[in-house]
Amino acid sequence: MADIIGLLLPFFGLILIGYVAARVTKQPAEALGWLNTFIIYAALPALFFKLVSQTPIEQLTRIDFIATDIAATYSIFLLLFLIGRFLRRNSLADSTIQAFAGAYGNIGYMGPGLALLALGERAAVPVALIVCFENALHFIVAPALMALEGGDKRSPWRLAADIARKVLLHPFILSTALGFVVAALSLHQPIAFERFVNYLAQAAAPCALFAMGVTLALRPLKRIPVEIGYIVPAKLILHPLVVYIVLQAVGGFDPIWIEAAVLLAALPTATNVFVIGQQYGVWQERASATILITTACSVVTVSLVLYLIKSGVLPAQLFT
After folding, report:
1. Which of the four pLDDT bands, split at 50, 70 and 90, describes residue 182?
2. Which DSSP string do the residues of 45-83 spell out, in sequence order?
3. Cα(273)–Cα(283) distance, rounded to whole angstroms?
4. E-assigned strands of 180-272?
5. First to last CA, the chain
6. What integer pLDDT is reported at residue 320 of this predicted model?
7. What's the pLDDT score for residue 5?
8. What is the number of other CB atoms lying within 10 angstroms of the CB of residue 313?
9. Pick from 201, 181, 184, 165: which is nearest to 45 by CA?
10. Are residues 259 and 123 in contact, defined by beta-carbon separation less than 8 angstroms?
11. For the chain, what are the domain ranges?
12. pLDDT at position 37
């Protein structure tokens, strides 16, 4: 158990430091802008490029893995969407944000650092694939469903063009694509360039987690939404369980890849869920509360998932 605490302390400790710093210094939310810019446009893209460019190309073309992982994730999305839309009679827009709250984990900020520290460099490829392909699909699904609701006033052609631009020009996607090219062509990277990329990549996890703590502090919990009762267990328990079972059922994947996917699925709700809600003016306060509550609860649930993985309790092959 001491090993698990040693793995988690740097991550949740950095979130806590960011949270406390924001509470003590009382800086405005705008003060976080340039740090977020550095994280999204420099540090994390450098990390993804580094992970992908140093990987044999045959490992980067496992479409079966990413398709299976996305199918498992979107089964959670669909379940929560149907609950919100037909059982609770919410609008399509509200149901969409609720579904993202239970299926869109904080894979960009928390995923790479935690997975690499817990599972080692062999987890780099599945982490990079999951982060990039899941984010790309989320960027497509969110505006598409909002357009159906009528919350997006753009024309179909303008909407499609904007979605394509957002996906293709996102720093995570661009850096990963560039890494694919370097890996496919076995291009030699100059030593100075490698050092520069490593320097940026090393800053990704600390800066991202600190910024996350600040963000949580700037969005105080005003009320606990009723939907928390089923969204939290769906995100923190059901999501990683479904990912594990589906990947095992399909089979043919390295156990490290499955463990990486399960760990990323166990992460709390992404702050992007609040951003999406804010963009369309729906479910904003409740999205903020969901992020805060799932992050707090994930201290326990992520610890449990790590214990199951590191102790060998989680079977490497569920189906024989």
Report:
1. very high
2. HHHHHHHHHTS-HHHHT-HHHHHHHHHHHHHHHHHHHHI
3. 10
4. none
5. 30
6. 64
7. 82
8. 8
9. 201
10. yes
11. 1-310
12. 93
Copy the structure tokens of residue 33.
């802008």
Sequence-distant (≥ 6) Cβ neighbours of residue 22 within 8 angstroms: 213, 214, 217, 218
Residue 165 CA: distances (Å) to CA of 91, 100, 142, 162: 28, 21, 14, 5
Is the confidence at residue 243, as pLDDT, over 80?
yes
Cα 87-92-96 angle, rounded to 5 deg: 90
The mean per-residue pLDDT over the stretch 90-98 comes to 95
Two tokens, residue 143: 């505006």
Q: Which CATH number fits domain 1-310: 1.20.1250.20, 3.30.420.40, 1.20.1530.20, 1.10.860.10?
A: 1.20.1530.20
Q: Can you give the pTM of this predicted structure?
A: 0.92
Answer for the pair 286, 225: CB distance below 8 angstroms, yes or no.
Answer: yes
Contact between 293 and 224 under an 8 Å Cβ cutoff? The reply is: yes
Amino acid letter for position 154: R
- The H or E element spanning position 114 is helix 111-119
Which residue, among 109, 89, 86, has the nearest Cα to 32 in the 3D structure? 109
Helix, strand, or coil here: 275?
Answer: helix
